[in-house]
């Protein structure tokens, strides 16, 4: 009897909660010969943008509206062609300008200009906080200056939102975090896909990752387990009152050395980023497991 019980406990400890969000941005050069680092005519055009999410765990469900008992372990978005101008995310404390930003989250999203087509650094004194455009790109009203939503409204980023829930209503999941980011598709050294970034926001916590999963900037202090946790508090169940909202913003980082006009013709036709989320299963003794995978 005790042996059976011990085996059950061990089995539970091996259980985990993991989800994978797939962000796919296709970038095509427009052949612009204008001078710019961040200039209105120097654009990167994204074709159809597909964003999917999936989970390989028994308890975690994902939805793009509201989680329910019928929500599955995979969901997806299909967007329309989108033009993206390069941008950057900075901590408000270290930002050059005094813009609004999202003060509750401590970040600001900015853009700038460069002196010529081959410049890989911004022109001094041109950094500005991105302003929103009223009722644009699926965001109602005019987003506060310097926020990621303002960047979406004005064509600097693409946004999709996932809702994560715990299907059984009895198993609490906690310490939700990104466990990895990887590039899907091939990349070249001079390809602007090297400048792709994903800003992941959950509540007041956020992290910016590059295509290789390196943390570029964040307002999160690592926990004792050396993790950047998006949501420490446990969550269980489905529905609006229980689900966790995760917003993901894809953009090109103008601070990356690959961002300059003459590099536009070196873009490949399609690339994506796979963002893996993991949470601890309290019913399994707080253990974690490997993340799921997404096959394109």
Q: What does this entry look like structurally?
A:
With 296 residues, the protein is mainly beta. Helices cover 6% and strands 35% of the residues. The protein is built from two helices and 18 strands. It has helices at residues 2-14, 148-153, and strands at residues 17-25, 27-29, 44-46, 50-55, 60-63, 74-78, 82-84, 88-91, 107-111, 128-129, 158-166, 173-184, 196-202, 205-210, 215-218, 229-231, 244-252, 271-281. It has a six-stranded antiparallel sheet, with no helix packed on it. Strands 5-11-17-13-14-15 form a six-stranded antiparallel sheet. Strands 2-3-7 form a three-stranded antiparallel sheet, with no helix packed on it.
Percentage of helical residues? under 10%
Number of helices: 2
Content of β-strand: 35-45%
* Structural class label: mainly beta
Total count of strands: 18
Order of helices and strands: HEEEEEEEEEEHEEEEEEEE
Order of strands, main sheet, comes to 6-4-1-18-12-16
Quote the distance from N terminus to C terminus.
46 Å
A few lines on this structure:
By secondary structure, the chain is mainly beta.
Ordered list of secondary-structure elements with their pairings:
Elements: H1 2-14, E1 17-25, E2 27-29, E3 44-46, E4 50-55, E5 60-63, E6 74-78, E7 82-84, E8 88-91, E9 107-111, E10 128-129, H2 148-153, E11 158-166, E12 173-184, E13 196-202, E14 205-210, E15 215-218, E16 229-231, E17 244-252, E18 271-281
Antiparallel strand pairs: 1-4, 1-18, 2-3, 3-7, 4-6, 5-11, 8-9, 9-10, 11-17, 12-16, 12-18, 13-14, 13-17, 14-15
């Amino acid at each position: 009897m005790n042996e059976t019980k011990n085996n059950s406990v061990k089995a539970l400890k091996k259980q985990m909660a993991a989800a994978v969000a797939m962000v796919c941005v296709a970038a095509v050069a427009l052949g612009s010969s204008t001078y710019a680092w961040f200039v209105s005519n120097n654009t990167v055009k994204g074709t159809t943008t597909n964003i999917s999410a999936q989970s390989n765990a028994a308890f975690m469900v994902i939805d793009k509206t509201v989680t329910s008992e019928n929500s599955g372990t995979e969901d997806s978005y299909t967007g329309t062609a989108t033009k993206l101008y390069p941008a950057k995310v900075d901590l408000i404390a270290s930002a050059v300008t005094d813009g609004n930003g999202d003060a509750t989250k401590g970040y600001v999203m900015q853009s700038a200009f460069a002196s010529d087509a081959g410049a890989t650094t911004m022109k001094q004194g041109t950094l500005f906080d991105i302003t929103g455009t009223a009722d644009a790109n699926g965001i109602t009203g005019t987003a506060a200056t310097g926020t990621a939503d303002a960047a979406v409204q004005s064509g600097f980023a693409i946004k999709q939102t996932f809702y994560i829930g715990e299907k059984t209503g009895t198993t609490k999941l906690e310490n939700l975090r990104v466990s990895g980011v990887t590039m899907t598709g091939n990349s070249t050294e001079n390809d602007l896909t090297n400048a792709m970034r994903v800003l992941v926001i959950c509540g007041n916590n956020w992290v910016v990752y590059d295509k290789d999963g390196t943390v570029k900037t964040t307002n999160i202090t690592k926990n004792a387990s050396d993790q950047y946790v998006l949501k420490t508090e446990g969550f269980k169940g489905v529905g609006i009152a229980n689900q966790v909202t995760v917003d993901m913003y894809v953009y090109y980082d103008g601070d990356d050395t690959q961002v300059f006009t003459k590099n536009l013709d070196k873009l490949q036709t399609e690339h994506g980023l796979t963002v893996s989320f993991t949470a601890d299963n309290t019913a399994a003794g707080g253990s974690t497991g490997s993340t799921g995978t997404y096959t394109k």
